[in-house]
Amino acid sequence: MDRPIRVLVAKPGLDGHDRGAKVIARALRDAGMEVIYTGLRQTPEQIVNAAIQEDVDCIALSILSGAHNTLLPKVASLIKAENAEDILIVGGGVIPDEDIPGLKASGISEVFTPGTPTQVTIDYIRANIKRA
Amino acid sequence: MDIEKRILEKDKRAAARLITLIENKDQEALEILKRLYSKSGNAYIVGITGPPGAGKSTLTDKLAKALRKQGKTVAIIAVDPTSPFTGGAILGDRVRMNDLNLDSGVFIRSMGARGHLGGISEATSAAVKVLDIYGSDYIFVETVGVGQSEIDIVKNCDTTLMVMVPGLGDDIQAIKAGVMEIGDVFAVNKSDRDGAKRTAREIDMMLDFNKDAEWRPPVKMVVAVENQGIEELLEAIHEHKTHMVTSGKFEKRRTENAKSEVVGLVKERVEKAILDKSNREEILDFYSEKIVKRQVDPYSVVEEILGKMDVLLK
Amino acid sequence: MFNKDQISILKEAVEKENAKTQESLQKRPERKAEFTTGSGSPVKRYYTPADIEDMDYMNDLGLPGQFPYTRGVQNTMYRGKFWTMRMYAGFATAQESNQRYKYLVEQGSSGLSVAFDLPTQIGYDSDHSLSEGEVGKVGVAIDSLADMEILFDGIPLDKVSTSMTINAPASVLLAMYIAVAEKQGVPSDKLRGTIQNDILKEYIARGTYIFPTEPSMRLITDIFEFCSKDVPLWNTISISGYHIREAGSTAAQEVGFTLADGIAYVEAAIKAGLDVDTFAPRLSFFFNAHNDLLEEVSKYRAARRLWAKIMKERFGAKNPKSMALKFHTQTGGSTLTAQQPDNNIVRVAVQTLAAVLGGTQSLHTNSKDEALALPTEASVRVALRTQQIIANESGVTDVVDPLAGSYYIEAKTKEIEDQAMEYIKKIDEIGGAPKAIDMGYIQQEIMDASYDYQKKVETGEIIVVGMNKYQIEEEAPKGLLRVDPSVGEMQKANLVKLRAERDNARVDAALAALRTACEGTENVMPFILEAVRSYGTLGEICGVMREVFGEYQQSVNL
C-alpha cells in the first residue's frame, strides 16, 4: 500500500486513563500511520462522526472504566447505521476475556488486553483494514 | 459509492472519501474534481497560522462557533507535520474542537503534511475545493507556521490570520522573515497574560513596514479559551473580506493563487513524472555520487533528467 | 561526615578496583552492559562513602521526627503504631459499598477509603447521558445526600477516618460527609479523613477534571479556609504523585511534578490571604510504590527532605507540622499483570515493603486481580494480609528508617532530590505548575518516559515476569467481580423519586444562592452545604458551577 493508514484513536466514556491510548497513538505514528487523536470523554456519536469526516481505515478504542459492554457495541452499531462497515474497529483496555466474544459479535474485530505489545496491534491493523 | 452525485447531496462520507483519494493522488479523484470544479468558488477561505502553542485550534473552534451562530456552515482543515522518518503523524487538533463534532454544519478534517515530496499545498487546496463543492460557507485552513510549505498554504487563502501569543520565544523579531508579512489580520491570543500588550506593540511596529497603503492589518486581542474578543476578531476578518472585494484585490488574489496553484501542480507532475517516488532516491543517489566524484556536473545531470521528461511527455 | 583523607584514599582504591574489574569484564561480562533502576536511571556496581562524601548528617538527614524529616515524620514511627491500612473500595450502589466497608472494618482495616464512580467524579448524575454504562463501575454512585446516608449507615463517623478519592467535586462530597455526620449527631470538628482534592494532577494524568484551572484553584483554597475553621482535623488535600507515576513517569518526575503541584497550592492559598501555618499542616501527599524497592525507598526520603526545605525556605513556614511531609501510598496498579495474576501478590508484597521502609503514613495494597477487573473480597483480603504480615512478622517495623546510612540509599536519595529539584526549577521558569500543564510540558515529559518504558518492555530490555518472559498457556480467569448492570437503572429511579419528594423550592433557593456565591468572591462551602442539605443533587450543584465557571479544555501533547 502506497498511502498511510489512517487510524482514529479514541477514548469512549468517562475514564481519564489515557496512558495506553497515547502509547498506542505514538506507536502507530512510528509505524507510519496517520493517527487522529481525539482526547478524553468521547461519546460513541462523536467517535463515529469524527471517523467518517476523517475517513479513517480503523477506529481504535481504549477503555478502562468497565463500560465497554455498553459503549463499544454502540460505536459498532452507529458505524453500521452510517453504512461505514469498511472501517475496522478494534478495542483495548481492561476487558475481561469472557466479554470478548460478545464484543466481537457486535462488530468489534479484535480486542487487545493488558500486556499486548504495540507491535501486535500494529500488525493486526495492517493485516485487517478493509480498504486497499 | 457514487462520490460525484453524493457530494452534491451534501453527503459527508463522499466528501471525506474524495479528500482521501486526492491526498493519495488518485487519478479518478482528479477526474471527479475536474467535472465538479465549476461548482466551487463560493466558500470564503481563511488561513490560520502561527507558532506552535499559540492556541490556533482553540481559536479556530471559537471562530467556527461564532459563524455557526450567524447560520453559516464551516469546514476546517487542520494540517499537522508528518514525521520525516516514518511518514506517520499524530493529528491532534480535533481535541480542541470537540463541541463542534456533532454539529452537522461543521466538517473537520485533519491532514498530515506527508513529507518533503511537496504537494501538501496542492493536496490542501484540492481539499479546500472539495469542501467548497460540499457547500461550506467558510473554510478555515490551519497550519503550524514553521515550514515554507505550511506558509504557502495559508498564503493562498482569501484572508490570512496570524495568531501570536505573549511569552513564546523571545519576541516578534525572532519570527522568520517572510512570515509576518503574510498576515492580513493579527490575533494576540492568551492576551490576559503578562506581555500581551508588548507583543501587540511589536506586531504593530513591524506593520509600519507594511507596503500596502490601503490595508493596515488590525491587531486584535483575544483569549480564545474564554471566548473573549472572538466577535471582534471575526469582524476584522469580515472587514478584510469587504476591503478585498471592494478594492478588487479579491479577484486579483484569487488569480494569483490560481497561477501559483498551476505552477505548483506542474512542478508536482514534472517531479512525479521524472522522479517517481519509487526510484527517486535511487536516481538522485546515482547522480549525486557521480557529481561529488566530479565524474559529471550537476548542469548536465539536469539536462539529462529533463531529456527523460521529453521522452515521457511524448 | 567523612574524613577527607580517608575519602581520597577510598577514591583511589575504587579507581584501581574499577580498572581491574573492567579487565575481568572482558572475559566475563556482567548480565547487562548497563544497569538501571526501574525508572531507567543508572546504577553503579557498588556505592561507598565517596558517593555521599558531601552528606551532612544533621542537615541532610536529622533524627526521626526532626527537620528535614528525611528519616520520617514521627520520632517513634511504627514502634508507636502501624501505618493506617486503608483499602480503597467502593462499587455499585451505596448499599453494597456500605457492606464492603463493614466487612473491611471487621477484618481490621483501620480507615475507610471511598472509590466513587466516574459520573460522580466528573459531577454528573446517574441519569446524565454521559453516565450511560459508567454508573457504579469503578466505584460507588453518589447522586445526593440520600446515597451518602446509606453509604455510611451504621458507621460511626466520629470513630473512623475516611479518605475520599474525589477531586473536581471534592467540595460537594465533603459537604455531604459533613451533612451525614450532622444527622449522626457528630460535629464537624470531630471528623477525620482526607479528600484528594488535587485538580492539577487530574489535568496532568488522571483526567477527571471539570472546571478550568482558576476556579478550580479557588474551590481548593475555599476548602482550605473552611476546614481550617470548621473541620480542623480534616486533611484538605492529598497531593498526588500516584497517578503521575501510573501515567508512566519516572520516580524523580513523580517527586518533582507532585511537589511542583504542592507549591502551586501553597501559593494559591497564600494569595487568597491564608497564613501558611494555618493550612500547611493539613496538606498531605500520595505516592506510588513500584517494584524497584531501593529506588522507591529513596524516593520517599527525597520527597520528605525536599518538601521540608521548600516549606521552610521558600514559604517561611514556622510550624514544624507544615514542613513534615505526610503521605499515603498505593502499590502500583500499572505494575500488575493480567497474565498469571497470582504473581501480583508477590509484587504487591515487595511494594508494601518499599512503602513501609520509606515511612508511609497509610497504605492501600492492590489486589492481584486488578489488572482484570475490580477485586473480589477474597483477593482484597490477601492484599490486606500482605500489609499485616509486613507489619507483624517482618521485623522492619521495629526500627525507624532502617535503610538510612546505606551508601546506595543515601546517594539515590540525593540523586532523586536533585533531579526533582531540576524539574521544579524548570516549572518555576515556565511560571508554575498550572502554566506548565497548560503548555503540556509536564504531560509531554511523562509521555516520553512512558513510551520509552513501553519500548523497553517490547524489546525485552525490561523483563516483566509472566508477560514478556516465563509465559505460560493460561485459561481465562473465572469468578471476576461484575457490577450488576441494573445499578444505573436503580440510581435513575431513585433520582426520580428524590426529585419528587424533596422540597424543590428549598433546592432552587440554595442553588440560586450558590450561583451568586460562585459569581462573587465569597467562600462557596457554606452554600454548597446548604444545597447538599436540601438534597440538591451532585449534578445540579456541579451544573451551576459549570455554568458559572466553564469547563476545562484538555491540553494534549503527543
From TrEMBL, chain A:
CDD domains reported in the protein's UniProt record: MM_CoA_mut_B12_BD
UniProt keyword list: Cobalamin, Cobalt, Isomerase, Metal-binding
Cofactor(s) for this UniProt protein: adenosylcob(III)alamin
Record-linked Pfam families: B12-binding
Domain B12-binding: start-end pairs: 4-132
PANTHER family hit by this protein: COENZYME B12-DEPENDENT MUTASE (PTHR48101:SF3), METHYLMALONYL-COA MUTASE, MITOCHONDRIAL-RELATED (PTHR48101)
Protein's name according to its UniProt entry: Cobalamin B12-binding domain-containing protein
Organism, scientific name: Fusibacter ferrireducens
UniProtKB/TrEMBL annotation, chain B:
Transmembrane segments: none
Keywords, comma-separated and alphabetical: Chaperone, GTP-binding, Hydrolase, Nucleotide-binding
InterPro entries, A to Z: GTPase/Isobutyryl-CoA_mutase, GTPase_ArgK, P-loop_NTPase
Record lineage: Bacteria, Bacillati, Bacillota, Clostridia, Eubacteriales
Family statement drawn from the similarity comment of this UniProt entry: Belongs to the SIMIBI class G3E GTPase family. ArgK/MeaB subfamily.
SUPFAM superfamilies with a match to the protein in the record: P-loop containing nucleoside triphosphate hydrolases
Keyword Transmembrane helix: no
Name under which the protein is recorded: Methylmalonyl Co-A mutase-associated GTPase MeaB
From TrEMBL, chain C:
Gene3D superfamilies, per database record: Methylmalonyl-CoA mutase (3.20.20.240)
Domain Methylmalonyl-CoA mutase alpha/beta chain catalytic: 37-551
InterPro entries assigned: Cbl-dep_enz_cat (IPR016176), MeMalonylCoA_mutase_a/b_cat (IPR006099), MMCoA_mutase_a_cat (IPR006098)
Ranges of compositional bias, category Basic and acidic residues: 13-34
SUPFAM superfamilies referenced in this protein's UniProt entry, alphabetically: Cobalamin (vitamin B12)-dependent enzymes (SSF51703)
Region of interest: Disordered: 13-40
Pfam family, one: MM_CoA_mutase
Keywords, sorted A to Z: Isomerase
Residues spanning the membrane: none
Name of the molecule in the record: Methylmalonyl-CoA mutase family protein
Organism: Fusibacter ferrireducens
